[in-house]
Design brief:
The chain is an all-alpha fold and 180 residues long. It is 76% helix and 0% strand. It is built from nine helices and no strands. α1 runs antiparallel to α9 and α4 crosses α9. The longest helix has 27 residues.
Length: 180
């Protein structure tokens, strides 16, 4: 079933909940994979300096619950990174409020809404994943690297965390952008 970009309120809510929950659980799945000893989680554990005792002694339900909440928050922010159509209405918001120019602006916005001429331009998983990778490189990496420098963390850990978040953003943006 193909879901349109803008929907009725009830359908749009179901669409968003389904899409964002898949993004959030995808991020969680990536984290499980990263820290698992079966997939080189030992390297991550060595770089962070965590021991098995310290990991097992922590409140894991709280850690995973909060990380899932944060993944949901991130999923709600990804459309701004990867869906070009969102910026059109935002750019014309003031013009839409001006009665003298509202009709012309409304014609432009209508071309980008569901059923419009440009509603599904660049709405593929591949294009969204590209935006996620670019966000990982140009947004996430500088933040993690800066923190790593001041916290005296190894560059290997910085690259491991950057790779994780870049993969997560690529998956999230790919799902959000391609989910129509």
């Amino acid at each position: 079933m193909k879901v349109k970009f803008f929907q009725t309120k009830q359908n749009k809510t179901n669409y968003e909940l389904d899409c964002y929950s898949r993004c959030s659980f995808g991020a969680h799945g990536c984290r499980f994979r990263m820290v698992s000893p079966k997939s080189d989680g030992d390297a991550w554990q060595r770089e962070t300096g965590l021991t098995d005792e310290r990991i097992n002694g922590s409140n894991m339900p709280m850690i995973y619950g909060l990380s899932l909440l944060f993944a949901v928050m991130l999923a709600f922010a990804t459309p701004m990174l990867c869906i070009h159509q969102m910026s059109v209405q935002s750019a014309l918001m003031n013009v839409l409020q001006d009665p003298a120019r509202a009709d012309a602006a409304k014609m432009i916005v209508d071309k980008f809404e569901a059923g419009g001429e440009y509603a599904n331009e660049f709405r593929t998983f591949k294009h969204g994943a590209l935006h996620g990778v670019l966000a990982g490189i140009f947004l996430i990496f500088p933040v993690i690297a800066t923190n790593g420098f001041f916290e005296r963390k190894s560059f290997k850990l910085t690259m491991m965390n950057t790779a994780y978040w870049t993969i997560v953003l690529a998956l999230m943006c790919g799902i959000v952008c391609g989910w129509q």
